[in-house]
Design goal:
heterodimer, A: 11 strands, globular, B: 4-stranded antiparallel beta sheet
Chain lengths: 116, 114
């Protein structure tokens, strides 16, 4: 069964260090999302790609976060420098293109980041 | 603006009991989509169901059923004869017709005990 792959599963990093997460969406899915989920809360969108283009990064803290999807397939989310408040689960999801947004997103297992 | 409210933070039931998880939403879109996801301890969000705003028929899938009522802006989820494996956090989510992102509620943690 096709799934969204994320790595690493867990990451511990020191404050002010750089950290990166990787996501490989389901093959053929044009839309890719990065969500952040703080403990006890629902996921919140950080950035959305349609193929290689960013369509929504309004909630991405651009002074420290960056995301890319160079060939419209896999994606990397980077934080530099990491802050204590960045400790959270980072979830990647993908969905097929079309149907005006009706299609559900399929999520990976996430990367749990702890900043110390 | 879109908003999803899951007022129940945590629910505990004994196995075989029925349980209903509430979801209330707000949107100005006339076309929108509602979703339920399950998040087990492993962390992955598992898609359960999608409904569009034009289809108010209730749906049943095995022990799961969903009640969509546009008049009260609610999309409630019932698990019949709950099992320990149902223990998880359940999220209701909304996607407006003009927006592509999912807006999630804060989730309801369901604990099913023997």
């Amino acid at each position: 069964e096709a799934e969204v792959a994320q790595s690493p599963r867990y990451k511990i990093t020191e404050k002010s260090q750089a950290v990166a997460f990787w996501c490989d969406p389901i093959s053929g899915h044009a839309t890719l999302y990065w969500y952040r989920q703080i403990l006890g809360q629902g996921p919140e969108l950080l950035v959305q790609f349609q193929d290689e283009s960013v369509v929504d990064d309004s909630q991405l803290p651009k002074d420290r976060f960056s995301a890319e999807r160079l060939k419209g397939v896999d994606s990397t989310l980077k934080i530099q420098p990491a802050e204590l408040g960045d400790s959270a689960m980072y979830l990647c999801a993908s969905s097929p293109k079309g149907q005006g947004g009706a299609l559900e997103a399929f999520f990976g297992q996430g990367t749990r980041l702890t900043v110390v | 603006a879109q908003k999803v409210t899951q007022a129940q933070t945590e629910i505990s039931v004994v196995e075989k009991e029925d349980v209903t998880l509430d979801c209330v939403y707000e949107t100005r879109d006339t076309t929108y989509y509602l979703f339920w996801y399950k998040q087990p301890p492993s962390g992955e969000l598992v898609f359960l169901i999608r409904r569009n705003s034009f289809d108010e028929q209730n749906e049943i899938s095995g022990r799961y059923s969903w009640n969509f009522q546009k008049s009260t802006s609610s999309f409630n989820f019932t698990i019949t004869a709950s099992q320990v494996v149902d223990s998880a956090v359940y999220f209701c989510a909304l996607k407006g017709g003009t927006a592509s992102k999912l807006t999630f509620g804060t989730g309801t943690r369901l604990q099913v005990t023997l």
